[in-house]
Amino acid sequence: MQRIDLGEIENDEILEASGIASSRFNQNILWTHNDSGDENRIFAMDINGNHVGEFFLNNVKNRDWEDIAIGPGPIEGVDYIFVGDIGDNRSENDIKHIYRFAEPQVYTDNQSSEINIDNIESISYQYEDGNRDAESLIVDPITKDIIIISKREESAVHFYLLPFPHDTENILTAQLIMTKDFYPNINFNTSQWIVAGDISKDGSKILIKSYSDIFYFTRGRNQSIFDALNTTGEKLPYVTEPQGEAICWDRMTSGYFTLSEEADDANQPAHLYFYPYN
Fold this sequence. Notes:
Blueprint: E1 4-8, E2 17-22, E3 29-34, E4 41-46, E5 51-57, E6 67-72, E7 79-85, E8 96-102, E9 114-117, E10 121-127, E11 134-139, E12 146-150, E13 157-162, E14 172-180, E15 194-199, E16 205-210, E17 214-218, H1 225-229, E18 234-236, E19 244-249, E20 255-260, E21 271-276
Parallel strand pairs: 5-9, 10-14
Antiparallel strand pairs: 1-21, 2-3, 3-4, 4-5, 6-7, 7-8, 8-10, 11-12, 12-13, 13-14, 15-16, 16-17, 17-18, 19-20, 20-21
């Protein structure tokens, strides 16, 4: 299975891509965003990295957006975008936020380059065992639960659950469900930090990404995500990127996209890559 270079990311303002999600509502559209320091916006691009639109989340701040996911929500049959303001390098923020809104229609022709999004709900939470930095957000398409995976650990990462339905008026407590060491036989280094995750639309295929590897898990019928992740899994092909913090399945689960931040020191622009999956 060879990596396919789909091209350079056209929009020069996507400098620190930290998440990617494949639209289920708009054909051949991917969503991405920058991490901390950027405006309150997400970007739509096509599957060749060409810019399609810029969408601003009204009345929302980008403190440290670290992942984006698409999944079900309170209205049946509606695809929602979830933007995870879950980064916290120094573990100093008690409250984290996940912003949820119905996925907008994207028009590839004659569309304004800047579009505002209203009706954004904030799912605010704290971890039951203290502050954590996280960069991985998964929405279970079967249960509608939210799963968050911690990053800055020296061995086993923490898996947290925000069960559906999600109260958007009060601060929730993310439940620690399990821990897992993805590198049990290797001395720790920062390339092992877990930085992204995604799940297929039918909920049966799970990807977890570190800076250096992609781990794949299959989920059986009536099996929880956590039971699936507690198995050995397997590694899938991946060529290390400068700061690769984004992964998602494509719309048909026929492969997965990866995206990284731009490498300033090497004057290397970010590219969109695709790995066909058999």
